[in-house]
Each structure stands twice: as C-alpha cells, then as structure tokens.
Amino acid sequence: MKKFLISLIAVLLIIIVYFLMNKSPREIDTLLINGNIYTCDSKNSIVDAIAIQGTMIVGVGKSDKLSEVFFARQVIDLKGKTVLPGLVDGHAHILGEGGKLENLDLSGTTSTEQIVMMVAERIKNSKKGDWILGRGWDQNSWQIKEFPKKEILDKVSSDNPVFLRRVDGHAAWANTKALQLAGIDASTKDTSGGKIVRDKNGTPTGILVDNAIEFVNKIIPPLSNEDIERRLVLAMNECASLGLTEVHDMGVDEKTIQIYKKLIDEGRCPIRIYAAIDYPGDTWNQFLKSGPLIAYKDGMLTVRAVKLYMDGALGSRGAAFFEEYTDDPGNRGLTLMSEKEMETVCRNALEKGFQVCTHAIGDRANSITLDIYGKAIALKKDRQNQERWRVEHVQVLSPNDIQRFKKLNVLPSMQPTHATSDMEWAENRIGPDRIHGAYAWRSILNTGAEIISGSDFPVESVNPFYGLYSAVTRQDQNGVPQGGWYPEQKMSRVEALNSFTRWAAYGAFQENSKGTIETGKWADFTIIDRDIIRCNENEIYSTKVEMTIVGGKIVYKK
Ligand SMILES: [Zn+2]
Q1: Are residues 245 and 143 in the same domain?
Q2: Are residues 141 and 277 in the same domain?
Q3: Residue 318, domain member (yes or no)
Q4: CA of 91 to the centre of ligand 1 (A)
Q5: What is the pTM of this model?
Q6: What confidence tens digit (pLDDT) does each residue in 337-383 have?
Q7: By the number of CB atoms within 10 A of the CB, which of 243, 380, 473, 513 ranks highest?
Q8: 70/8 Cα distance (integer angstroms)
Q9: How far is ligand 1, taken at its centre, from the CA of residue 96, in Å?
C-alpha cells in the first residue's frame, strides 16, 4: 500500500510538472492586443496581436491565443488602432534635416521679399560676420520664376555672409559678402560639373550651381562634433515622432558615423540608421580597407553602401539628358563623374562587398549608371547582383531603360513626394514625350522590380504619410490635379506600404530582420490613428502617429 502511494505521488508530480511546462504561459516583456495589424508578410496577412521579448517579435496572431501562450509584464490594448511594420525612409539626409531645423527653413516661401525679411530677422539676432545659412527656396514657387540675384540679399546683409541653398540642394544663392569671402569674381572660372551663373558682362549674379557651390561651402566654418551630435538627435527625434523606425542616410562621413556610434552606445539613437558613405573622401578609402560595418548593437547602425552622384537635379537644370531641356535649348545638363572613375569605384565596391547607390535624375544619367552597373556586375561569375546596387531617384527614364532594373537586379530607389512637388513644372523642363518616363512607378513595377520609397528629406518633408499619399494619388494635398497627375503611374496602397517597409528593408539587406511583422524579426512598429489601407484616400496624408516602437522600445508616444 505504501509503495503504491509513493508511486501515485510520483506519477502525480510528473503530471503536474508536465502540465506546468506546457501550460504555464511564457513570460515576455510586452503584448500588443486588439490591434488592426498589417503584417506586410508574403500574404499581406492582417492579425490583431503581437508578442515582444527584448528587441524581437516572438509571436504574431490572435489576442486571446497569444494571451494564453504568453504572460506579458506589459500589455498594451491598441483598441483597434492600426499597426504597420516600422516605416523606413529609403533615401534621406539626417544631418541635413538637423541643419534645416536649426538654420533658416525657406521651404514654402513664396517670394524673395519674404526670404529677405527672414534673413534680416536672423541677422538682428546674430553677431557681425556670422554666417546666415538657410535652405529650401524654390524659384518655381515665386511669381517671377527666375533665379534670384545677390543684390536682393545685399540690401539687408552688408556685414554678414549669406548663403541659401535651393530646395534640392543643387543650387545656392549667395550675397556679395559671401562671394567676396570665397574669392569669386568675374575672373573666376567655372569648375567642372559646376556653374557660376553670370550676367551678360560676366559678373557672377550670386547663384552657384552644383559643384560651384563648393567655392563657398568650403569656407563656411565646419560643424563641431557637438553641432553634429545636436543636429542628428534633433532630426532623428523628428523622424521617430513621424513614425519612421529606420532611415537610409545617403552620404555620411567618418565623423558622423562615430557620432552615431556614440549616440547608440549612450542609448540616445531612437531609430535605426542604414548609411551610405559619401564619395569621394577619406571615409570611403578607410572603409575600403576595413570593409562594411554590419548591424552594430542589435542592428542600430549599418554602413555597407557608398553614395555616388551621376548628375544634378531637374529643378536647377543640372540633371543629365540625352536631348536638350525643352525650356533651355542647348543645355543637356551635367554629368558629375567620369565613367572611368565610376567603374573604378564599382570594382572596388564589388570586391569589398559594398552596395553602390548612385544619384541619377536625367535619362542620360540613369542610362550611363545602368551601363556601368551592368558591366561591373557581369565581372562576377554568377552574374547576380547580390550587392543589390541601387539607383537613387530614377526620376526620368528613356523607354529602353525601364526593364533594365529587373533584368540587372538593380533596385530603383524613388521618392513619391518628388513627383507631386515637381509636377507643376517638370513637363516644361522635358516636354510631352519624355514626361511618360518620369516618376514612372507603374511602368517599373510592371517589370517585376520592387521600388524602395523615401522622401529625400530635407528636400521634402520627413513625414512618410505624405509619401504614401503621393504614391497612391499623384495629387497635391488639395487634391490637385483631379484624378492625379499621369494617374496611370500610381501605386496601389499595398504597394506603397510595401515600398516603405518590406521593399525598403530588402534594399538594406534586412529582409530577414525588418520590413514585416513576423516572428523572429525586430520589434519595430508604427502605430497610427487611422486605417490607411481603407480610409478615404485624401485622409492618408493627415495620419497622426500614436506610437513608434524600435527594437521593442517605445521611442515616441503621442
Ligand atoms: Zn538625396
């Protein structure tokens, strides 16, 4: 009898332990329940709960099921709110945005008078000799759609050098003081890939285009480490507050990379950074020796790309075309890099495992870039573009080049808001034929290629919902033009969302850790106040972010 009892107790104990091991919920950090969650997985599934442990997603599915399986220290009831995979901006400039937040922000200005008033105001609060810097003017938004002159600024700024970049960064407006300090006068020769705009007597007017901007740029006192740190934090916090969880930072140097690392070590970096090194420069030469930096500190920073420039921009007529500008006969734009030089960079990048990201706007610049990529990629035996080289902007393509992206496995990285910002004047620049290859998202998607979407901030707003709205409507925020500008090129809402999540993650080699809401991926989410897949189209751009989560950590909360 005693023996029987001992056996019975042993069996009961085993059953209890077995029961506990299987039935006791697993302890985790956070459970998000009752959400409207777009996973962006291969089936575009919608679920209502996510389980998070540490920096990772450990479960995705139904709220009641996950509540049984997991015991969470923190439960967040989403009350039906929409959750997206953490949004990614596939092309932007963090330090530039920080500068925009600190310097004069001229975006949206409608006249030179307005700008002069802003400059005068800033000078009142500055010391004699201080540089007055700003960015964002666009002569296309003025009544007189011409480049402005230095004299307009001179009236209020005889003692302070003033230097104001155009919205696209590809032209700048200087006052006389700034030109004097830079030693620019009638005798100064144009630099290659740049232009000093002059009046009919050869006197510089105050406008510098593309590489000529460097004449002044190089004499502006450099930013201190503290300046850079402050600006990066300022811009990254803005990104987090607008729902971004990662930015592809296009063009960084060693100093900036070191400061990113410091901020990550100190826990002050709210979002992930995927950085492309600015070419040319010492940073690129150093990284060619050391090789890429991949997934520093739980994937907060990756440096495995190099950023090249093939041409300028459309607004300042610096983009390189096969034929002349429709509104500027004789001008075909500028290429900023020789083919031979680019071939060398591509060979080096291929050897060391770097992704090449090349800025190309005009049809000629895109064509040359694809030619050189094709040649370099063919050097590899498997002829696959495993380096996932990218063309940045892809703004105007000649018809023959549209299918080459898919064929060469080259990724198009495009900015939906550029289309809706440029649509008023783009056709004046390139005429009624070439415009069909401009911002041609649908034509590219139809070839089977996937688009990485971004904003190119500070050129455009950081807000990714502006980009999603532009992508699906091709309208400005007043709904103009009706039906959309060349509406046959629109993206669907799901495509637009994929381009800011899954496809952007692929463009950063992160498809196994980011871009969708699936078990085993980083816990990066954007929680918003409306259902952008089902709401009225014209409500997409006013979406407000409720919460941004990066690596399981809440980095922004409304
Ligand atoms: Zn850019």
Answers
A1: no
A2: no
A3: yes
A4: 6
A5: 0.86
A6: 999 999 999 999 999 999 999 999 999 999 999 999 999 988 776 65
A7: 243
A8: 31
A9: 10
